[in-house]
Amino acid sequence: MVVFYSDEQANSSQIEMDAADSSSTLRRTSARIKSLEAQKEKRSTPAPAPATPMPAKTDRKVKRRKVEKSPQLDDDLAAADVSDAVASVSNDVTTSTSAAAGKGVHAQVTETLRAFNKHYLQHIQEEENRVGRLEADRKKSTEKGSKSKSKKEDTAEENAKKTAARRPDLKAISEMMKTGTVLNPEKRIGSVPGVDVGHQFFSRAEMVVVGFHQHWLNGIDYIGKTAVSGRKAQKELNLAQYNLPITISIVLSGQYEDDLDNSDDVIYTGQGGNNLLGDKRQISDQKLERGNLGLKHCMEQSLPVRVVRGHKCPNSYVGKVYTYDGLYKVVKYWAEKGVSGFTVYKFRLKRLEGQPPLTTKEVYFTRGRIPQSLSEIRGLVCEDITGGLENIPIPVTNLVDDPPISPLGSGFVYIKDMKYSNNISVPTIAPTGCNCQGSCMDSRLCACAKLNGGDFPYVQRDGGIMAFPYCVADFCPTAAEISEVWHLIAQWLVYMAGLWLTAIDLLVEPKSLVFECGPSCKCGPKCVNRTGQNGCRFRLEIFRTPKKGWGVRSWDYIPSGAPICEYIGLLRRTAELNHAADNSYVFDIDCLQTMKGMDGRESRLRDVSLPSHLEKIVEEVSESVPFCIDAAQTGNVARFINHSCQPNLFVQCMLSTHHDIKQAKVMFVAADNIPPLKELTYDYGYALDSVIGPDGKTQQMACYCGANECRKRLF
């Protein structure tokens, strides 16, 4: 998708422009731009040059989807101390087969995690399809009144039902290992390129695929003696100089009853003798081998250990979130009788100085910082910018301006549904729907699934937010009023508790187009294929940024693939825009152009199965974009979402009430697992030097997204 500049550009008074003349009439990828570029080239070129192949516009593209046992030591278990010195270790990037040439280390980590999430959701989809087909076949068999099956048939059916699919996250790991798309496949000492202090993983599987902690279950990851020979990457680390095994990372997740964690100073209980599948208590003595011996060797050789802390996160599919808190040194170890009476090894670790401050408590425990009432929100300038239109209120905060201002002060009006210009005819003929009852489950029979390439675009996963409207005004009902407002009380309590957790539907992968169930479909409103019609399910906040104007963030954890909100505004004809006026917040509906891969867009036409009447439209499409969404004066929360060179959202076009691709809905979807209070961003899609002003000159604007690999210019 291509978007004209939004809030980051509209607040030009707070942005230092690269160009002297910061005209607000900048547009992107339209017939007008093509004309201006042609005029400029005609004026500056005295004679036509010989025809040469045109280079690919790579800048414009935005990818939216993509044990060995060690010998026992002597009985001398006296405490041992080490000096503060830490051995220097290599921080060079270990090349992965999945790392695209020229990409930065942070981009490689992001792309690897996105690939994992895609595989993970695909395997969930496979299991849903398997169960759905079994259920459909069972109902079909029951309706036919079939005779009693033989014992052999009954056994086969029961085995099919009981055959639980292997954990989808482990299947995703296996698939990426087979295809060589894991990052940093060789274990490494010290920091891992692209994973900064404070980085959050939403499963241990994510740590495995980026080469950060390569045990999906064990709390200690170490390099054994067998790693010395036969591996090029290990030879580059010169492991022959070390006494192996060496522990490279540990995960503090509170599963050992003897752990003591004081952030900078940790008492870590070694591995072994723990009832991993039960109550996590010690059931036997630990031994000084494997990872335990590796920690001792780290102490003796002054080698750092990566420390990750795990905390409960009910929204995560594993129930935890894991935060990288930096490098620690082992300063002491000893053995003692644990709480359960068995011998355990203890290791004292201290955090190395000179690292960024700890962020585990600051970032993860955001729910503790969320106000208990609207009056407690710092910098609150608007309790609910939606005016009660959305299921969940969206407050606005401003801690930057003095006095603070509100976006409503500029005459902006919040709307929930799309508005149309007078000269635009709204499609009224609903497409032929599916005949599914209740909820679409069997992709073999669902007509809408066939439009999406033979499968449903969404999968259901636990950990979402059930949105309820609630009363913004403070109220304390009397006993006589309770019966009348009991539902408001319940909604208020649900909101203050963090809303009701329920299942959430996730988009498996970005598609050129998603066909959702529409008004002619027989399925109900809770159908998984109506996910994009359910409104926002997360608690969002509009906040003022120092350099980018207004931005949007979430109070809740947002899983990858979760739809966030639709881009709402006034639907207009692109040709009728006044190019001399302010065209901020204008979004081109270029779904057709994207499907055809025009102007450097990434084509994904293979993801859908178009009806015959739409195939002709796609074939005849030109570079011009007939319709756009103007959210300058009327719009919703989506118009406040800023640009980033490394975004965490992507744009997805959808159709439901009609099948006019030129007027497709524009939806923002989470590209990554997004932690609470992380700003929501998407890539505006500008190629450098691609924006031409009314005078025919190339316009430039600085980018302040703050991404690790920021291009420094928005266009």
From TrEMBL:
Residues 1-76, 127-166 are annotated as: Disordered. The keyword Nucleus applies. The keyword S-adenosyl-L-methionine applies. Residues 538-685 form the SET domain. One of its GO terms (cellular component) is nucleus. Its main location: nucleus. Residues 190-351 form the YDG domain. Residues 34-44 have a biased composition (Basic and acidic residues). Keywords: Chromatin regulator, Chromosome, Methyltransferase, Nucleus, S-adenosyl-L-methionine, Transferase. GO terms for biological process: chromatin organization; methylation. It comes from the Eukaryota. GO terms for molecular function: methyltransferase activity. It is found in: Chromosome; Nucleus. Residues 699-715 form the Post-SET domain. Residues 8-28 have a biased composition (Polar residues). Gene3D superfamilies: SET domain, SRA-YDG. It holds the Pfam family SAD_SRA. Residues 432-535 form the Pre-SET domain. PANTHER family: HISTONE-LYSINE N-METHYLTRANSFERASE SETMAR, HISTONE-LYSINE N-METHYLTRANSFERASE, H3 LYSINE-9 SPECIFIC SUVH4. This is Uncharacterized protein. It comes from Castilleja foliolosa.
